Amino acid sequence: MLQLDRLTCGYGPFRAVTELSLEVPDGSVLALIGANGAGKSSTLMAVAGHVAVMGGRVLFDDADITAEPARSRVRRGIALAPEGRRLFPDLTVQENLTVGGYSRSQRAEARNVERVMALFPRLEGRMKQLAGSMSGGEQQMLAIGRALMAEPRLLLIDEVSLGLMPTVIDVCYAALARLRDDGLAILLVEQSTQRAFDIADTVCVLESGRAVWSGTAEAAREDPALVEAYLGLAG
Ligand SMILES: Nc1ncnc2c1ncn2[C@@H]1O[C@H](COP(=O)(O)OP(=O)(O)OP(=O)(O)O)[C@@H](O)[C@H]1O
Ligand SMILES: [Mg+2]
Which ranges constitute the DSSP H helices of the chain? Predict the structure, then answer.
């Protein structure tokens, strides 16, 4: 469904990502991992249409969307839960969700709110709470929920587990697994390689904007040198 063909993107003359090729088929999860500054967020933002593409192509359902503005990509079914969540802290939970579904009808909005509540029961009964007053975990659930309001077929999610308690991370990953089982394609960025390898079908390791390893999650799990070689992190 999503295909990056030698994507190069960056900021002004600076290349954050160089000739990256990858594929995320329907109903599958690709985990993008790598050290700080490797280009993970830039990749997600380029797919969403928020970072300038300098070379290569972004294909979605075989259509070349490289030059499309972000809002048309949302309409096609690409939604981003960005790094740092970027919620509107002074707006309520309801209002944050409404923003996420701006391209859909009112009837669709009510249906999508119900889906989000079913996925994250912790958000139920909190529709009038200000987003900024919620816990980090609740905010992450809301950020994922807001992205789902656009009825995406591809979910881009940056730093799923960063700063969250293990129980909350479990809730988020259980939700992602359910969405994947329903056919959603997911491209996620994750610091915890353990979490990434557990949910992913395929893994891509970025180093200084280039893919230095890619393969199945199973192969990644069985390669103990991988994490140390490229990330210098403990799982
Ligand atoms: N708005 C920007 N303007 C200029 N350079 C940027 C901008 N955003 C990111 N960069 C640069 O692009 C490179 C890749 O950054 P990116 O945020 O994509 O990395 P990352 O893998 O997501 O890192 P982290 O794990 O710290 O989130 C870095 O060298 C960074 O300094
Ligand atoms: Mg990042």
Answer: 40-48, 70-76, 93-100, 106-119, 136-148, 166-181, 193-199, 217-221, 224-230
